[in-house]
Design a protein that fits this description.
Helices cover about 25% and strands about 30% of the residues. With about 240 residues, it is an alpha+beta fold.
Length: about 240
Amino acid sequence: MESVPVLTGEQSATVRDAVHDLRDHWLPRGPEPTAFFTLGPPSYLDLAQDPRAGEYRARARAARPVLWERFGWLYERLAEVLGEHLGSPVCYPEDLALPGFHVWLAAAVFTKPRAPIHFDLQYRAFDWPPGTDLERLLSFTLPIRLPVAGGGLNVWDATYEQFQLARRRGWVEGATDLLRFHTRTYVPYTVGTMAVHSGHILHQVAPVGQVEPDDERLTLQGHGVWCDGRWLLYW
């Protein structure tokens, strides 16, 4: 897990206000009354569960001009900082969703460890171009606003490759079986500082001790795959 500063506090507040200005474009996720939304279509929700579905592509096309008009400067900043950190250029393929926002309003913020424990495997739902190396992956989270009590990620010292080996040998059936054998670490988030990892480490959105009525957890999310000398960023 690596930490990469991207935004100042003032810039993060500007992004937060812009996300709320676009509330008409938020996509509700979950039962009514909804308190968890996305701004933009994440592939883990709109594609990975049914790779044949056209909803992801349609939503990605519809969201791109809206997001780029309002957050073009942010995407350019992200590409600059992440490209420098990785030592290689990054780009945003036209046929994929731009990195987008998770919006948890107060009622949806986890106060108990109930968020899914998972690896980021949605890249398997795509047909990638020649030159793609699916051994070189990344996932990132850029916190824009956090609850008063903070926010972060639970991470276990277990990789997807270790999970596959253990499953082949019959030691485990699901990813959560790994919790018996591996150590959990809490990684606290800082507003404006991006957390970057491979996506192949076992992880979970961490709960917070308490939630205030005006709290929210707002993050910019994305993933990347290596292809022909550059990183392709998407959501």
